[in-house]
Amino acid sequence: MNTSRPIITMQDVDLEFSPGTGVFDMHMAVNSGTIFGLIGPSGCGKTTTVRLLTGLHAPQRGVVRVLDDTPHRFKTRSRKAIGYVTQQFVLYPNLTVGENLNFAASIYGVGYFSRRKRLREVLDFVELRDAQHRLGNKLSGGMQRRLSLACALVHNPRLLFADEPTAGIDPVLRAKFWEHFRQLRDEGRTLFITTQYIGEAVYCDLVGVMREGRLLHVDTPDNLRRKALGGETIKVGVPPEQSFEAVRRFTSHQAFQEVRRVPRAPGELYLTVEESGAAMPLVFETMRIDPEITVLHAEPYVPPFDDVFIALMEQSANTYSNPT
User: Fold this and answer.
1) What is the pLDDT of residues 251-307, one digit of tens each?
2) Distance between CA atoms of 74 and 54, rounded to whole angstroms?
3) In the chain, which end has fewer C-beta atoms inside a 10 angstrom radius, N or C?
4) Which residues, at least 6 apart from 212, have a Cβ–Cβ distance to it below 8 Å?
5) Residue-averaged pLDDT of the chain
6) Burial class of 237 by CB neighbour count within 10 A (0 to 12, 13 to 18, 19+)
7) Helix 276-288 and helix 243-251: axis angle, to 10°?
8) C-alpha distances in Å from residue 131, one per residue of 198, 219, 257
């Protein structure tokens, strides 16, 4: 992940639409050349955050800075450096793919003589060259999303905002979108992406977790796993009839912070440890004490990010219901 100076900052930002509705006490910093993913339940404030960062809303309190500028008073040079993919398809349904893209290029001030080459480049990037003569209202939902992305990129922006760009499209196309996003990041661009698919957090360099208008965590996916689950995880397999004794043995060892059984898979145990690589030899060492227990397999386990998200939400619920 790029460690240059932040291209986006929010400090003590509030925007309240009605009592309890809006975003509150927002803090974040996003470095240049980073994919920042913002995740959270529907209605938690993700889109409001994007609108604050793009200048569509002004904060009631706090400071928002994007590209060393104030978003709701953006200078022209700042606006030209930003691309924005909205949740809904907002282009012209009665224009072709090529005409929509050409219109977007003209709005962003892409020069007439250099435009043709840039249009070809962007159409190739989103794989729509063969559909350039098709009307917008004849495109599938996934193709409309790709056209929206192309229009947001046609002026070669430094910073791209994408508000739930993969919503409602199939998993294969979602994977293709993230391939595009990583390529843009590798070219030095910064991407700020909201998503309703929690598992997509693993594709990001940095992840913000929101709940009820508040940003609970900002960290790497790996660090969020550790925060949510108390460490790393080792998955161990033993014969089902030996699982209770194996749990007893592991629980008695201080290196294993938590031992969980899975009811639907009686022979599977999940051990929470500080660092899985260092703890792996201890699994077999502990079992050698009791030769009646057989370890069938043991390997580091990376829980799906949906599990991580649920654990973080439960922790935040406990924090708000039991303030200290």
Assistant:
1) 988 889 889 888 888 889 999 998 888 889 988 888 777 777 888 889 998 888 888
2) 9
3) C
4) 20, 44, 45
5) 90
6) middle
7) 120
8) 31, 39, 56
Where do the H-state alpha helices sit in the chain?
46-53, 76-80, 97-107, 112-125, 141-153, 171-186, 221-229, 243-251, 276-288, 305-321
What pTM, to 2 d.p., does this model score? 0.84
Q: How far is residue 64's CA from residue 115's CA, in Å, rounded to a whole number?
A: 33
Q: Residues 20-47: pLDDT tens digits?
A: 899 999 999 999 999 999 998 888 999 9
- Measured between its terminal Cα atoms, the distance across the chain in Å is 35
Owner of token pair 């959270």:
40
3-state secondary structure at position 211 = strand
Residue with tokens 């009791």: 290
Q: State the DSSP code for 71.
A: G
Signed CA dihedral, 289, 291, 297, 302: sign only: negative
Query: Which residues are registered as beta bridge partners of 301?
Result: 233
What does the DSSP 8-state code read for residue 231?
A: S
> By the 8 A CB rule, do 1 and 205 touch?
yes
Distances (CA, A) of 14 to 19, 211, 293: 12, 14, 57
**Residue 43, helix vs strand vs coil:** coil
- Residue 247, helix vs strand vs coil: helix
Strands of the 61-66 sheet, one edge to the other: 21-31, 6-18, 61-66
Residue 93 scores a pLDDT above 80: yes
Residue at 202: amino acid letter: V
Average pLDDT for 80-106: 91
Q: How far apart are CA 288 and CA 107, in angstroms?
A: 71
